[in-house]
């Protein structure tokens, strides 16, 4: 890793992964040297922050503990910057692209295609799992990488079905590797770490926060050729991933369901708005497999 990449990782850790502040720095100093030379007042001015917040950042910036922490992540080979050859080129093209990715597992999955992101409700009906198994199995058998977010419900089903069928899957996390949410997925998370791939843009020590979940959705869609929605209420958080996919120019697919079920409303609305109705795997295969 180059000195520049070290500074990139270090500054993002100091800024707690705040990409907005990081881009302020990069716009002024693309080489990321000036922040280390500025006084507290100058740093506050550069970041346009009140003195109290700037002081905390200034102290972390010059803390030997923070530099050792950065070095430890690099030594563990869990961090890649947007300058790294393994960094997915398609993620560089999305709006608000990640600057750094933390990864544990098989990094080759980042460049494999095709890939399909699978999202949906955290409280699925009893019909969801068998339907997902029916639709996803042929795709998995054709080496399609399944991308999801390791959330309760549809995400968990997607990862488990893929591994059960001997396929490959990526979990994009809304927190750092030292944490797990939901807690009941600790076993799943470990299995994904050992045999598949975990990805996060948050340093390992960062705990899950509410805003992290919609924020990471752009990475779920960004890592995928298309996005499939399975069971979603009208205002489901899964629809945020759909918005991101559309903004990124990706294909969107939706599984229809029982017209009397609130879990079908989101998918039916997407179909009305132009998402492709999926009855079986062929509806997806014919587009890009």
Automatic annotation (TrEMBL):
<dbReference type="GO" id="GO:0009294">
    <property type="term" value="P:DNA-mediated transformation"/>
</dbReference>
<comment type="similarity">
    <text>Belongs to the DprA/Smf family.</text>
</comment>
<dbReference type="InterPro" id="IPR057666">
    <property type="entry name" value="DrpA_SLOG"/>
</dbReference>
<dbReference type="Pfam" id="PF02481">
    <property type="entry name" value="DNA_processg_A"/>
</dbReference>
<feature type="domain" description="Smf/DprA SLOG">
    <location>
        <begin position="79"/>
        <end position="287"/>
    </location>
</feature>
<dbReference type="InterPro" id="IPR003488">
    <property type="entry name" value="DprA"/>
</dbReference>
<protein>
    <submittedName>
        <fullName>DNA-protecting protein DprA</fullName>
    </submittedName>
</protein>
């Amino acid at each position: 890793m180059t000195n520049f990449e070290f500074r990139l990782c270090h500054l993002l850790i100091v800024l707690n992964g705040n990409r907005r502040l990081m881009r302020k720095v990069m716009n002024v100093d693309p080489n990321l040297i000036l922040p280390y030379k500025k006084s507290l007042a100058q740093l506050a001015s550069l970041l346009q922050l009140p003195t109290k917040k700037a002081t905390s950042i200034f102290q972390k910036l010059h803390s030997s503990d923070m530099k050792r922490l950065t070095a430890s992540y690099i030594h563990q080979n869990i961090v890649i910057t947007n300058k790294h050859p393994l960094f997915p080129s398609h993620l560089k093209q999305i709006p608000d692209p990640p600057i750094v990715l933390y990864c544990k597992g098989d990094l080759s999955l980042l460049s494999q295609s095709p890939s399909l992101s699978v999202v949906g409700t955290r409280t699925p009906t009893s019909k969801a799992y068998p339907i997902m198994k029916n639709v996803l199995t042929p795709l998995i058998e054709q080496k399609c990488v399944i991308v999801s977010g390791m959330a309760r419900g549809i995400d968990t089903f997607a990862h488990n079905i893929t591994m059960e069928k001997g396929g490959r899957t990526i979990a994009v996390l809304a927190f750092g590797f030292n944490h797990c949410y939901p807690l009941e997925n600790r076993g799943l998370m470990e299995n994904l770490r050992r045999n598949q791939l975990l990805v996060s843009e948050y340093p390992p020590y960062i705990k899950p926060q509410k805003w992290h979940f919609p924020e990471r959705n752009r990475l779920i869609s960004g890592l995928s050729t298309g996005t499939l929605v399975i069971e979603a209420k009208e205002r489901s958080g899964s629809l945020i991933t759909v918005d991101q996919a559309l903004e990124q120019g990706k294909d969107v697919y939706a599984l229809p369901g029982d017209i009397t079920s609130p879990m079908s409303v989101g998918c039916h609305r997407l179909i009305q708005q132009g998402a492709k109705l999926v009855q079986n795997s062929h509806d997806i295969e014919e587009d890009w497999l």
